[in-house]
Fold:
Amino acid sequence: MDVWNSLMQGFGVALAPMNLLWGIIGVTLGTAIGVLPGLGPALTVAMLLPLTAKLDPTGAMIMFAGIYYGAMYGGSTTSILLNTPGETASIMTSLEGNQMAKRGRAGPALATAAWGSFIAGSIATVLLSLFAPYVADVALKFGPAEYFALIVMAFMTVSAMMGESTLRGIAALFVGLTIGLIGMDNISGQSRLAFGVPELLDGIDVVVVAVALFAIGETLFVATYLNSGKDEVIALKGSAKMTPEDWKRSWPAWLRGTAIGFPFGSIPAGGTEIPTFLSYATEKKLSKNPEEFGKGAIEGVAGPEAANNATVTGALVPLLTLGLPVSATAAIILVAFQQYGISPGPLLFQNQGPLVWGLIASLYIGNVLLLVLNLPLVGFWIKFLTIPKPQLYGGIMLFAVMGAYGLHQSALDIIILLTVGLLGFGMRLYDFPLAPVVIGVVLGPMAEKNLRNALAIAQGDLWNVVSKPIPAVILLLTLAAVLGPAVYRRLRSS
Amino acid sequence: MKTKPVELLITLLMFLLAGLTAWQAYQLPPPSGYSSVGPRFFPGAIAAGLALCGALLLWQALNGGFPNVSTEASGETAQWSGFYWIIIALVTFMLTAKWGGFPLAGMLLFAFSARAFGSQQLAKDLGIGFGLALAAYLFFAKVLSVQLPAGVLAYLGL
Structure:
């Protein structure tokens, strides 16, 4: 069996002492930073990107996978004990988890989140190992027109499905696309939106954009508006163990969450928000004790946490096989690949076999490591939550700026950090989603390149590009996904 | 409901960005030879998209305001001193990083950011900030072989 052999080789790579060490460092750093309130996985990965500058690509990728996963696990601890979800995907977890913690059941809430993440992550990694090579095979037949359609689908669905308003999401996307334009036109070499500043010709680094939006903008917002309130950390008391009853109620929720999460992650249709909401709704509907929901039902933690982890693992399918990131975090990981001159896509499995299978194997190992890190050591991570706000945000600012500055050490990057940070502050204030900006910056140039290649093949006729069968179907699906909900609402109200 | 001036400002900014992008697209050479699309096409399309979003946002702003704006800011009063301290922290870092070195610039960044959140213990914050920044600096230099600016600390042999 081909997949089996490749995977075993992957384990050989991932278990090499140095790579294992990078994996352990990755999950530990990821958990530590993920626990800190206000820091989601996208920012964690962006801040730590310069750390890998001197590593070999395989070690770096394994470390990144660890950070990615670690930040997810760490984030759930915060949302249960502090009720401030670091990202939209944790909203559901905090809803029930925080209620459980308030009723003295913080231990079982944390345990079901960790076990659920472990089980969902492991199953999803198996599915990833099985499906990814086939998707890559199909994707090999895709030309620029198909890619262009897929990219449009990815960024439209990400923008339309995040946040409260489709229009504000799409507006955010176009702002990101504009930032992505800055620099050089990659076909004619003409400068655009660079205004004669030489450093701008290389374009704006997406890491700087991500750090600015997620760290600087967020810090500005909290410093201005949420300065007074004191967050209440719930002490971990009572039994930390799950009772047999808890296990019985968690199991089906984990599995259902995984089943909902993985498909959502693996189609380029964006967002961990919808699968966690769906999982929560499903659990509420199927539960024998629906009255417990809102007051700390364990299924309400188990299901969404599993869905969340299955989604982020599923998101690696389009990332590795098509080179398409469907979340802000995946977009930053794509940038990490590009730093090494590796472009994820259908050829990755052929050209970089050991790297990609080493990465997949490290996901299995990472899940085990994280279970160990999060179950017995959870008391240690909780200490991070008691850091006073001034010092916490002082540290966030220091490491965020270090992440952005460490890349090029240019003062211009700090100016960009400040400018885009102010943009992020304003967007946060008026409830514009931030992830579409990051996706726009990363996917914009890819969309342009594929569109122009497709147009060149089609003798410059746009209709020839979009009317090919596969692109046409993808674009129609996209249109339906974006406009569907609004049309449906209109029809129902009239 | 009254139209909010800030929402009009946001739409104005969208139109300005659209105009800027369109102007830059127009500076690029037109399609030449056989190709009917050139470098102008994609920036032009983005400018059109920005303008369209701006128009739709304007329509929303004039018809009852942006829908479903949910933010924690609504109930709280703004403390702009926190906002300004964060800006001061960043500008200070930018001005001091090269010659002052990362550990010292990072120390000020940390202390001023902590000040934004109401910390009154300047000496303690400077101490913690310096410790963290120095640790990060040494980690970059020794473990990752990435040299962040040492600045005046170079004289101490760091």
Q: What stands out?
A: Chain B has a mean pLDDT of 84. The helical segments of chain B are 5-27, 41-62, 80-100, 102-116, 122-143. Residues 4 and 51 of chain B are 20 Å apart (CA to CA). The radius of gyration of chain B is 24 Å.
